[in-house]
Amino acid sequence: FSTYHQTTRMVYSCLLPGEVVRACVDEMRLGNINPAQLPGIKHLIVDEYQDLNECDQEFVRRIADAGTSLFIAGDDDQSLYSFRYAFPQGIIDFGSEYANSSSHVLKHCFRCAESILAAASGLISHHSPPDRIPKDLVSAFSDSSPQVQGLVHRWKCSSAQKESSLIAESCAELHQAGFSYNSIKILVTQKLIGKQIRDALAEVNVPGSVLDDDPFILSKYGEFISAAARLAVNPDDYFGYRVMLRHLPRVGIGTATSISTKAISANLNYRAVFTESLPDDVFNRAENRAIQRVVDLISRLSDWGPDSTVSEIAETGKSLLKDTFSDDVAELWGQYAESLEDEVSLSDLISALNSPNSSEVQQSLAALTSTQSEDQDPKQSVQIMTIHSAKGLDADIVFVPALEEEIIPGSSRAANPGHVLESARMLYVAITRANVACVMSFTFRRLINGASVATNGSRFVEALGGTFAWRNGPLSPEECAGIKSQSEDWHSARN
Description:
Blueprint: H1 2-12, H2 17-30, E1 43-46, H3 54-65, E2 69-72, H4 89-92, H5 94-97, E3 108-109, H6 114-126, E4 138-139, E5 151-157, H7 160-176, E6 184-188, H8 191-203, E7 208-210, H9 220-233, H10 238-247, H11 252-265, H12 270-275, H13 285-298, H14 310-324, H15 327-339, H16 346-353, H17 358-366, E8 382-386, H18 387-390, E9 395-400, H19 406-414, H20 417-431, E10 434-443, E11 445-448, E12 451-454, E13 469-470, H21 477-494
Parallel strand pairs: 1-2, 3-4, 5-10, 5-13, 6-8, 6-9, 7-8, 9-10
Antiparallel strand pairs: 11-12
């Protein structure tokens, strides 16, 4: 591990857990690592087991087979990460894989009221593999005192514009009924849908925060300029060199990887590649040109430092981006720099970008902007999020719009049965973020790929336990009062 860690840190200054797992599995297969000889691993606890890929699961199995006591927790109905090859079959087959294991089933849901759980359970029972782990979940609030049944609204709308307006006006009514804005979440599968709803919220003066609406600084070009800022704050930031090299036009991942590999093979400190004279035979001509381009760009940052404000370095940044990319990119950076508070320093910006997760990055960056008024604080806004981002979170009221076949599962996923089932699990997770009220909706016309097209209710709609009715107006004051009463009972029962 020390050898692997040292060589990887020489290039990246960090190490991804997935890289360690893969390296360990490779070494175990070769017989170079014997888990039985590793001291100190008596008990291994693995959470969210359904999100592990097959390599992760092999890693766990090899440690357990060496005599370690293994405990896992998870739910095959909440496996959403096919993009990282999550393998939910692993938890389904766990009992047969580990013949001496036993199971402890959690039968009570402590998040959702009964009607919400019923809608979600109906969906997942109709759209799951034959060997799904059977469940008989019961809401902990069905027998609570006071009892909380919860409310589910099912809407169909004539157009996406109408749907957005109804959601926005309903949020305003809920706030009028006594709900704070941050007790409401709107969960979407596509960022564009979230932005449309945010615009509708603005029209009725409701603050809405699209936590997945990436600002310029999180774009490819923003990563480039933030890498330059990282190097200005800390010249030993190896990752800054790597990012600048990777994003240079006409360089690409192949050249960047080749330079990294050759640096490791030559036992070079990665920073030395850009700061010291090296033998001519380490890199080829194209690689040397790419390295020199980074060196030349860094030489233009001599007036940047940790305490430099973004406004002070804005013009240098524009010149850097103009010469590297284009006038348009430089102008985008200029607009972003102007949106920040005057005294935001490079250290402040880097600190915000280093927040622990994507949601906190968004909130930290938003706090630096000069246009952020008190009522637009992301923590006091209706939060619009993708379903992936909302996993693990909850809210009193959850809106789940755009339940159209063209959106979920969508044409690109509909051809693959596994992706269709994952889409059902995504919707299951979205619904079960709601504590006391869930409003689901679909529309018959939506803007898709720049064109207004006719749409149809998703195949999942029929399994959601009720009829979707035409809706022409937002939640009424009486409906909001009912939700408020249920919310008060839910919080009382939970406490």
